Amino acid sequence: MTGSAQWFARSIRWRLTLLYSALFVVAGALLLAFVYFLAAHSGSGARTVTSVQGPGISGSALGPAAPGTPAATISAVAEILHEGQLHDLLVEGAVALAVMALASLALGWLMAGRVLAPLRTMTAAARRISADNLHERLAVPGPDDELKAVADTFDDVLARLEGAFEAQRQFVANASHELRTPLTLQQTIVDVTLADPDARAPELRAALLRVRAAGQEQERLIEALLTLARSQRGLERREFVDLAAIVREHLPRSGPRVEARIEAAPVLGDPQLVERLVVNLTENAVRHNLPAGKEGWVSVWTGVDAAGRAGLRIENSGPVIPADRAEGLFQPFRRLGPERVHSRDGLGLGLSIVAAVVGAHGGRVLARTRPPGGLVVEVGLPRFPGAPPVAAIGPGVAAARRVH
Predict the structure, then answer these.
(1) How far apart are the C-alpha atoms of 396 and 389, rounded to whole Å?
(2) What angle do CA 35, 36, 39 make, to 5 degrees?
(3) Of 336, 346, 294, the residue nearest 317 (C-alpha)
(4) pLDDT at residue 380 tops 90
(5) Which residues pair with 116 in a beta bridge?
(6) Which of 20, 52, 94, 195 would disulfide-bridge 65, Cβ 3.0–4.6 Å?
(7) Bridge partner residues of 188 (DSSP)
(8) 201-233 and 146-195 helices, crossing angle to 10°
(9) What SS3 string covers the chain?
């Protein structure tokens, strides 16, 4: 196939033109056949014979008839004339159809061009858009037809891509900063220790312990980043998970007072990711609580919520958090404190991992602040299908205890 032939085969404008012309030719041929059928069976020959049978009657298709002309002769002549008229009709109709077929090609080309003009505009605009100018949009004007729906859908995709790229850039910048901080600390400790020629074994041991602590912090951060990436990739397996048993196992054993009401909550999901979700929420509730010596508390509930999902709610006392900051806590490297560099209280990935795990399971997570101080986090996960009702599983294990 030559280059021009390949272009014709790939051009939707030519395909639409040929489609329009083919439809016109088929419709014209059917119309011509219908007219020919009506003309062939209209009975005009019989009317002609009848009109010439009377002596001296004129005005028939044969003109004035001579007296005494046999009726059979007149009928044969009329039939010949009728067939000639049908032949002329067929030839003239075929010629007219051929001419209109050529005209339909030109008209089809023009109409296909007008129909596809918005697509050409959209294609040119899409080619100009890259990772550096994702803020641009097609913004196709006109009525709300199928083409505008395609353009609006493409604009929505661009908006999501822009948000994803921006979040990725921010995440990479934050991760680089978080990983560089312990490395800088390690380098500083080593340099200071090496600069002291009189350093003794206790000082060297203390420096090594600090370097080890910084390395462990890096290890925890890398593990958290891997967990976050795994959660955002989606679930590789789904199976029965006893959310109540996981929560009961990971209730805080020290720190603030813990009030727990554990009821059956069967979940369909990944056991490791669900366990990480529970651990992150409980650790955050203990870490971001009132200082030691004050009456801090943590409230934990599991069960089935009103929507039929397996639910987990963790509420804790703590510092006052502005209400407009609750939603931002699910973003990576967002900490409650105003500092980001000097405050090493946590990695800043706990709630972002929770949000990623919940999203991978197709659930929902909400966070709201408490006016007296603290936070309430509610999680809803898909319930395990075929699980018996909560009443059939047995009464929930409710516990209210103080952990010192």
Answers:
(1) 12
(2) 85
(3) 294
(4) yes
(5) none
(6) 52
(7) none
(8) 170
(9) CCHHHHHHHHCHHHHHHHHHHHHHHHHHHHHHHHHHHHHHCCCHHHHHHHHHCCCCCCCCCCCCCCCCCCHHHHHHHHHHHHHHHHHHHHHHHHHHHHHHHHHHHHHHHHHHHHHHHHHHHHHHHHHHCCCCCCCCCCCCCCCCCHHHHHHHHHHHHHHHHHHHHHHHHHHHHHHHHHHHHHHHHHHHHHHHHHHCCCCCHHHHHHHHHHHHHHHHHHHHHHHHHHHHHHHHHCCCCCEEEEHHHHHHHCCCCCCCEEEEEECCCEEEECHHHHHHHHHHHHHHHHHCCCCCCCCCEEEEEEEECCCCCEEEEEEECCCCCCHHHCHHHHCCCCCCCCCCCCCCCCCCCHHHHHHHHHHHHCCEEEEEECCCCCEEEEEEECECCCCCCHHHHCCCEEEEECCC
Residues contacting 228, CB < 8 A, separation 6+? 332, 349, 352, 353, 356
Q: In the predicted model, is pLDDT for residue 281 greater than 50?
A: yes
Burial category of 95 from C-beta neighbours within 10 Å (exposed 0-12, middle 13-18, buried 19 and up)? exposed
Across the range 138-152, mean pLDDT stands at 77
pLDDT category, 48, cuts 50, 70, 90? very low
